[in-house]
UniProtKB/TrEMBL annotation:
Keywords: ATP synthesis, Cell membrane, CF(0), Hydrogen ion transport, Ion transport, Membrane, Transmembrane, Transmembrane helix, Transport. SUPFAM superfamilies: F1F0 ATP synthase subunit A. The gene is atpB. It is a multi-pass membrane protein. This is ATP synthase subunit a. Belongs to the ATPase A chain family. Signal peptide: none annotated. The chain crosses the membrane at residues 15-37, 75-96, 116-142, 211-232. It comes from Fructobacillus broussonetiae. It is found in: Cell membrane; Membrane. Key component of the proton channel; it plays a direct role in the translocation of protons across the membrane.
Length: 238
C-alpha cells in the first residue's frame, strides 16, 4: 500500500507537501550552514571556516580532475552549492524524518522523490550542454555531441545522452529511496514482534543507518563528479 500523502494544486500543477516542505527545509539548512560557517572569515580560520574551506577544496578537486582551470572555476559555485544541498538532502530522511498524526510523512530526504532527482539531473545537464555551446559554438557543440567520432555514430550518441540523464537521476533516487525504505521496514519489524523485535532490529537499524549516511555522502560526490564528467565530454575536454 502506498504511503499517505498530502497534495495541493497550483496553476494546474499538482505538488506534494512532503516534497515542498522537505526541499525548502534542505535549502534553508544549506543557507544557514553557509552563512553561519563563513560569518567571521579571518586569516586564522575558525573551526567553522575550516569546515567550509575543506568542502570547497574538495569540490574544487572533483572539478579539477575532470575540467581545465577556466571551466572548473566557472562551474565552481554551482558544484559547491549542489554538493552541500545533496549532502543535506540525502541525510535528512535518516536523521530528521517527521510524520503527522494522519501518518503522512511531512519531512524526508527530498532526493528520495524522483521528481527532485530528475530535476537536479536536468539542471546539471543543462549547465553541461550550455558550457558545450559556449566553448565550441553551436555547430561545434552539435558535432561533438552527436557526430563524434563518425557521423554513423549519431544513433548511439543520442542513446548515450538519454542514458546520461537517466543514470544521473536514477542512481541518486534509487540509493536514497532504498536506504529510507529499508530503515522503515526495520522499524516495522521491531514493532511487529511485540517489543522483542527491538533486540534484533536495533543493531540492524544502527548498522544500516550508518551505511546509509555513508551512501548519502558518496552519492553527493558521484553526482557532482558526473556533472563535471558530462561537462567535460560536451565541451570537448575529454
Amino acid at each position: 500500500m502506498d504511503e499517505p500523502t498530502s497534495t495541493f494544486s497550483l496553476l494546474g500543477l499538482t505538488f506534494t507537501w512532503t516534497t515542498v516542505v522537505s526541499t525548502l527545509l534542505a535549502m534553508t539548512i544549506v543557507v544557514l550552514l553557509a552563512v553561519g560557517l563563513t560569518r567571521k572569515v579571518a586569516i586564522r580560520p575558525s573551526r567553522g571556516q575550516n569546515v567550509i574551506e575543506y568542502v570547497l577544496d574538495f569540490v574544487r578537486g572533483i572539478l579539477g580532475d575532470q575540467l581545465p582551470g577556466n571551466l572548473a572555476r566557472s562551474l565552481g559555485l554551482y558544484a559547491f552549492t549542489l554538493f552541500l544541498f545533496l549532502v543535506v538532502s540525502n541525510e535528512m530522511g535518516l536523521l530528521l524524518q517527521v510524520k503527522t498524526g494522519a501518518d503522512v510523512t511531512l519531512i524526508k530526504s527530498p532526493t528520495a522523490d524522483p521528481l527532485i532527482a530528475f530535476t537536479l539531473a536536468i539542471m546539471s545537464l543543462m549547465i553541461a550542454h550550455g558550457t558545450g555551446v559556449k566553448v565550441l559554438g553551436f555547430g561545434g557543440y552539435l558535432k561533438n555531441m552527436f557526430f563524434k567520432p563518425y557521423a554513423a555514430m549519431f544513433p548511439l550518441n543520442v542513446v548515450e545522452q538519454i542514458t546520461n540523464f537517466l543514470t544521473l537521476a536514477l542512481r541518486l533516487f534509487g540509493n536514497i529511496f532504498a536506504g529510507e525504505l529499508m530503515l522503515n521496514l526495520l522499524a516495522q519489524l521491531a514493532f511487529s514482534l511485540n517489543g522483542f523485535g527491538w533486540i534484533a532490529a536495533l543493531p540492524l537499524e544502527m548498522a544500516w543507518q550508518a551505511f546509509s549516511l555513508l551512501i548519502g555522502g558518496i552519492q553527493a560526490y558521484v553526482f557532482v563528479m558526473l556533472t563535471a564528467v558530462f561537462t567535460a565530454q560536451l565541451s570537448g575536454q575529454e
